[in-house]
Design a protein that fits this description.
- By secondary structure, this protein is an all-alpha fold.
- The chain folds into 2 domains: 176 residues, no CATH class; 85 residues, no CATH class.
- It is 75% helix and 0% strand.
- Helix 1 packs parallel to helix 5 and helix 1 runs antiparallel to helix 8.
- It is globular, with a radius of gyration of 23 Å.
- The model has no long low-confidence stretch (mean pLDDT 85).
Length: 304
């Protein structure tokens, strides 16, 4: 229901932005056209090609690997797919998620473009804002009817809370089931497991709050910031997964070494600002496969 309110509110805002402008669609989008906001395809060939995030090739290749990692290895998505009744239902859920995400991004890009025309192409400083993420909330509060703005704000909070709840659940589940439970032994009763799960969930919640406070004053868009942070570990996760799927020789130790090596490579790449964030995942994948596969060929992590 919150997704319906979330997307329905954005669609309502887009329609209202067009209708409330004197020039209609042509008038409100004129500045956006002049500023190149409707230039969809950007090949980006040039000296800064690898450092330009939003190019056609970076979107197709980098975005493809990012989607494979998020929908194939991220516990936040995987746990929901595993909750479906069958493999066919799981496939439909993944495909449906992709379709909804495309529609969602297209809709909010359109709203952002309309807001650019609504505010006359004013800069953040002229609007008295610190981040681009504050533009749409301002319009929701100031430009939408009171009842509608309240419903949309409630939908936004509901969508945020559901995502946070899913994130805490997935991280706590991975911590307890994959790390703690196999090493706890027979002495782990259901009561102890429940208490430990609650404590781990609270710990992850505190870490998420601390992370939000750390990035609270950043000028970078929240979506871009979240995806760039996720891409930091997605490369190692997807690379480890592909290492086990595509090759038969790697052992568990090889996979772990590949994952850690991929993370270390990503630390170097990000620290030196070598490429844009859209290339992070594929670089992490290549590093994890090369390191894990190389160790497997050498037989370093294999137990005879």
């Amino acid at each position: 229901m919150q997704m319906v309110i979330y997307l329905g509110g954005a669609l309502f805002a887009a329609v209202l932005l067009v209708q409330s402008h004197d020039g209609g669609w042509a008038g409100i989008t004129q500045l956006a056209h002049e500023a190149g906001k409707f230039d969809i395809i950007n090949l980006g060939f040039g000296p800064d090609f690898w450092k330009t995030p939003y190019t056609l090739i970076a979107g197709i290749i980098g975005g493809g690997f990012l989607s494979m990692a998020s929908h194939g290895t991220d516990q936040l998505i995987v746990q929901r797919v595993l909750a479906t009744k069958s493999v066919h239902a799981g496939r439909k859920a993944l495909i449906g998620s992709g379709v909804i995400i495309i529609f969602q991004f297209a809709l909010f890009l359109l709203v952002g473009t309309l807001l650019y025309g609504h505010y006359g192409g004013a800069s953040l400083a002229q609007l008295g804002l610190k981040s681009a993420d504050e533009i749409f909330p301002r319009y929701i509060v100031e430009g939408l009817p009171p009842g509608v703005s309240g419903i949309i704000i409630a939908g936004l909070f509901a969508a945020a809370l559901s995502t946070l709840a899913g994130s805490m659940s997935s991280m706590a589940s991975s911590t307890v089931l994959d790390l703690y439970k196999p090493r706890a032994g027979a002495g782990l009763t259901p009561e102890k497991e429940l208490r430990f799960s609650r404590a781990v969930t609270a710990l992850w919640a505190a870490l998420l709050v601390a992370s939000a406070l750390f990035f609270m004053n950043t000028s970078q868009a929240v979506v871009e910031l979240a995806l760039s942070i996720a891409s930091f570990t997605y490369g190692g996760l997807l690379g480890t997964f592909l290492l086990g799927v595509l090759f038969k020789r790697p052992s568990q130790e090889d996979a772990l070494a590949g994952f850690v090596g991929g993370i270390l490579v990503m630390v170097t790449v990000i620290s030196l600002h070598i490429v844009a964030w859209t290339w992070y995942t594929i670089i992490g994948v290549i590093a994890a496969i090369l390191i894990g596969g190389g160790l497997a060929m050498l037989g370093v992590g294999r137990k005879e």
